[in-house]
Each structure stands twice: as structure tokens, then as C-alpha cells.
Design a protein that fits this description.
This protein is 74% helix and 0% strand. By secondary structure, the chain is mostly helical. The protein folds into two domains: 30 residues; 169 residues, Ferritin (Up-down Bundle). Keywords: Iron, Iron storage, Metal-binding, Oxidoreductase, Signal.
């Protein structure tokens, strides 16, 4: 009798699996645990923002590589930032899969500008961009905290927040020093900054 009951149960499970497959009903997610739908959606939004930031920095990088700009360490710095933002987006995609979420990519809007002016103007744009990304991370952390998701909170703190605070401070310091040296009116200021400050960063 016990064997018959097992066979019947197995047959019912097999039928249920076939029914789910044929009707398009998704199978149960075996990974997902304590991962709220709002957290999943917030991660997808932030992935889009990181990809947008990567797009902006890529535009900046190749702008300063032009023959009429020729600030090659500015160009390298912004291209490196673009690569870093892409890595940030991919890290969140990996997290989404690890937690049983689903990656929903969205259209990436183009940068607001194609011409970035002087080096100091571009750094000021980068500073505002970093603040926007940081605010999105803080919002993401709050969603995770509101839904009592310690793993997601720790992930954001470990891989993102501290790094962004440092980036914001560094960019602000650079803008202050360039303004002090007379940029953008004093073109020599940006040339020296490109050669000595950003040159050291890239070496």
C-alpha cells in the first residue's frame, strides 16, 4: 500500500509539472528567500542608472581624447570610470540572480551633453553624477532595510557606499584645486592637473 501511495504521489507531481510546463505557469523559484519584490525592482532601476553613468563617462572619456582637447589623462580617468560603472551594474546583475530575482533591462538614455567643455566643468558634472548614483544607492539600501534584508544591506555597504563617498570627496577636492588654480580661464591649470595629478592616478 505504501508503495502504491508513493507511486500515485509521484504520478500526481509528474502531471503537475507537465501541466505547469504546458500552460506556461512558472516553476517555483528554488533560490528566492527573504527577497522582496520591491528590492528586486529597485535593483533593476539602479542597474539602469549605473549603465547610464557608464555611458556618460564613456562620452567624457572620448571627448577629452579629441585633437582639440588632448587631455589624455582626463580621457583615461573618465574611461576607467565608465568601466567601473559597468562592473557595478554587472555585480548587481549577479546579485539579482543569486537572490532569485529577475533582471529586467531598460532603455539607457543618452548623456545630456555631447560637448563637456573644460576639464573642470566635466569634473563638476561627474561630481553631480556620483551624488545621484550615491542617492540611488541610499534609496536601495533603505528598501532593503525596510524589508529586513541584512544580506542586501551588507552587499550595498561593502561594495558600493564607502567607495562612492570616497569618489565624491576626491572629485570635490579636484574641482576646488582646479578653481583655485584659475581653471577654466587659465588653460595651463588643466594641463598641469592632467599631467601631474591625473598622470599619477593612471601610473
Amino acid at each position: 500500500m505504501a508503495l502504491i501511495r508513493i507511486l500515485i504521489a509521484g504520478g500526481l507531481l509528474s502531471c503537475l509539472y507537465s501541466l505547469c510546463s504546458s500552460t506556461g505557469i512558472p516553476e517555483p523559484n528554488m533560490v528566492r528567500q527573504n527577497f522582496h519584490q520591491e528590492s528586486e525592482a529597485a535593483i533593476n532601476r539602479h542597474i539602469n542608472l549605473e549603465l547610464y553613468a557608464s555611458y556618460v563617462y564613456l562620452s567624457m572619456g572620448y571627448y577629452f581624447d579629441r585633437d582639440d582637447q588632448a587631455l589624455h589623462n582626463f580621457a583615461k580617468f573618465f574611461r576607467d570610470q565608465s568601466h567601473e560603472k559597468l562592473e557595478h551594474a554587472e555585480k548587481l546583475m549577479k546579485l539579482q540572480n543569486q537572490r532569485g530575482g529577475r533582471i529586467l533591462l531598460q532603455d539607457i538614455r543618452k548623456p545630456e551633453r555631447d560637448e563637456w567643455g573644460s576639464g573642470v566643468e566635466a569634473l563638476e558634472c561627474a561630481l553631480q553624477l556620483e551624488k545621484s548614483v550615491n542617492q540611488s544607492l541610499l534609496d536601495l539600501h533603505k528598501v532593503a532595510s525596510d524589508h529586513v534584508d541584512p544580506h542586501m544591506c551588507d552587499f550595498i555597504e561593502t561594495h558600493y557606499l564607502n567607495e562612492h563617498v570616497k569618489s565624491i570627496k576626491e572629485l570635490a577636492d579636484w574641482v576646488t584645486n582646479l578653481r583655485r588654480m584659475g581653471a577654466p580661464q587659465n588653460g595651463m591649470a588643466e594641463y598641469l592637473f592632467d599631467k601631474h595629478t591625473l598622470g599619477k592616478e593612471s601610473s
